[in-house]
Write a structure and sequence with these properties.
alpha+beta, Nucleoside Triphosphate Pyrophosphohydrolase
Length: 170
């Protein structure tokens, strides 16, 4: 995974320790089918996206990441959800550990023809819900893809499970 100068500077200070990162994910539909990408290093199918750079808005990160990975210029049209938790912790082969909070946007294509960047992405493909279910992907990606196909107008988020103890409430 290529790292930004910001992430590299943090890694120089903290080594391989857990790093919390904000990221975005692109959900581009074409005739009810969702575009997924095959990751070069793992072979897994992933959503298009990546880390938000310092001072970059999530919407700009979505447009930039889609352009870099697919050659498509897109416009964010709907917030589909915010994802995080243990399913979004990644242990990289070099020993780095990162936990992502992912803001997921549905986008519409403005222009361009899809082409994988060859750096992070080796293949792009539009898939149906059933085709997506049969592809190898991480648990976190599977959660985001399922929510994208469900898109019911209300952004997704995991329900809160934390509450203060009874003694803290009195």
């Amino acid at each position: 995974m290529p790292s930004s100068p910001y992430v590299l500077a943090l890694r120089n200070k903290i080594g391989h320790e857990l790093l919390m990162l904000q990221s975005v994910s692109v959900m581009l539909f074409d005739e009810g089918r969702l575009m997924l990408a095959q990751h070069r290093d793992t072979g897994l199918w992933v959503t298009i996206g990546g880390a938000i750079e310092p001072d970059e808005t999530p919407a700009d990160a979505v447009v930039r990441e889609c352009w870099e990975e697919t050659g498509l210029l897109v416009e964010p049209v709907q917030l589909l959800g915010v994802f995080g938790g243990p399913e979004f912790r990644i242990h990289y082969p070099n020993g780095d550990v990162a936990s992502y909070t992912v803001t997921v946007f549905e986008v519409r294509r403005i222009e361009g023809k899809p082409r994988p960047d060859g750096v992070e992405v080796v293949a792009l493909r539009f898939v149906s819900r059933d085709e997506a279910a049969a592809l190898p992907m991480s648990v976190g990606t599977r959660l985001m893809v399922a929510a994208a196909f469900e898109r019911r107008g209300n952004p997704y988020f995991a329900p809160a499970t934390w509450q203060p103890s009874r003694s803290d409430r009195s």
